[in-house]
Write a structure and sequence with these properties.
This protein starts with 15 loop residues before the first helix and ends with a helix. It is built from 6 helices and no strands. With about 110 residues, it is mainly alpha-helical. The protein has one domain.
């Protein structure tokens, strides 16, 4: 499967929100909302909010993507991803992603 690397290094191609959006799959939207409510302690996430094509792709974004500190930083610096930043491995903004999803930093390193 082709990877679609987000600003932080997550693979959007494997994200349930993107898959549900591309397939227009309301069952997956519901399952993803329920999972994310628990995972992110956000009971306000509803199935109709599960729409995203990826933070670096044209089109719809999940609500968080529009206010994501990482995406904002990358865009302000004029980069495509954190891979272009010399502070990537020590950055406090993206560190929580890399702590919990170590393959994200590997995805970014593969872009260089």
């Amino acid at each position: 499967m082709e990877k679609i690397i987000a600003c932080c290094g997550l693979d959007c191609a494997s994200c349930e929100a993107r898959i549900a959006t591309v397939k227009n799959d309301d069952t997956l939207r519901k399952q993803t909302a329920e999972k994310w409510q628990i995972q992110h302690n956000s009971p306000d996430i509803k199935p109709e909010m599960i729409n995203c094509l990826g933070c670096r792709q044209d089109g719809v974004k999940f609500g968080h993507c529009m206010v994501c500190e990482i995406r904002t930083c990358v865009n302000m610096k004029g980069y495509d991803t954190c891979a272009q930043c010399k502070e990537m491995e020590t950055c406090q903004i993206v560190s929580f992603v890399h702590k919990y999803v170590p393959e994200a930093i590997e995805n970014l390193k593969s872009l260089n």
